[in-house]
């Protein structure tokens, strides 16, 4: 696998080796030995799968300690613009974001460690996103930030007003959210 560090060093793009021929392709989407070069001592406990229509924005979501989540995200159908935002107040990259196009075609994955908010927008008619987490979901630890917070200033590739859940539409701005210290 090829690992590329982004402008926020702890956020990494992972490109698995893909073996293709006239039958289709084969790849290992996750391998414990290979992944140890990205993050050691990670135990994934939950897989999540979502389907979104074009223009749906999901996020920006996170979980606080003691149930903070790290995520390994990939798009298995269609295309998404995937975003991670540093929400660690003591970090030199606090409030900065990284955005990467993930698609069924490019097979890239985004590694998002604990301390980051995550969100994406579906770019294709439909997109299916599959991600692994190292911690179970706990309602009492969940948090969110507005997708369009001007202090973060994510450049979303949107042609229209996004479709949002009620929860995401009511999310607080970065300055009002409870975050990592």
Q: Kindly state the percentage of residues in helix.
A: under 10%
Number of domains: 1
CATH H-level homologous superfamily name? Jelly Rolls
- The largest beta-sheet arranges its strands as 1-2-10-7-12-5
CATH architecture: Sandwich
Order of helices and strands: EEEEHEEEEEEEEEH
Shape: globular
Secondary-structure-based class equals mainly beta
Rg over CA atoms: 16 Å
Number of separate strands:
13
Biggest beta sheet attributes = 6 strands, antiparallel
CATH topology: Jelly Rolls
Unreliable runs: none
Share in β-strands: 35-45%
Helical run tally: 2
Q: Give the CATH class.
A: Mainly Beta
N/C terminus separation:
33 Å
In short:
The chain has 2 helices and 13 strands; from the N terminus they run ββββαβββββββββα. With 181 residues, it is mainly beta.
Account of the 3D structure:
Homodimer. This is dTDP-4-dehydrorhamnose 3,5-epimerase. The protein has one domain: Sandwich (Jelly Rolls). It is globular and about 50 Å long. It contains 2 helices and 13 strands; from the N terminus they run ββββαβββββββββα. It has 181 residues and is mostly beta strands. The strands form 3 sheets. Strands 1-2-10-7-12-5 form a 6-stranded antiparallel sheet, with no helix packed on it. It has a 5-stranded antiparallel sheet with strand order 9-8-11-6-13, with no helix packed on it. It has helices spanning 32-35, 166-169, and strands at residues 2-5, 12-15, 18-21, 24-27, 46-53, 57-63, 71-77, 79-86, 97-103, 109-112, 116-122, 126-133, 142-144. 4% of the residues lie in helices and 41% in strands.
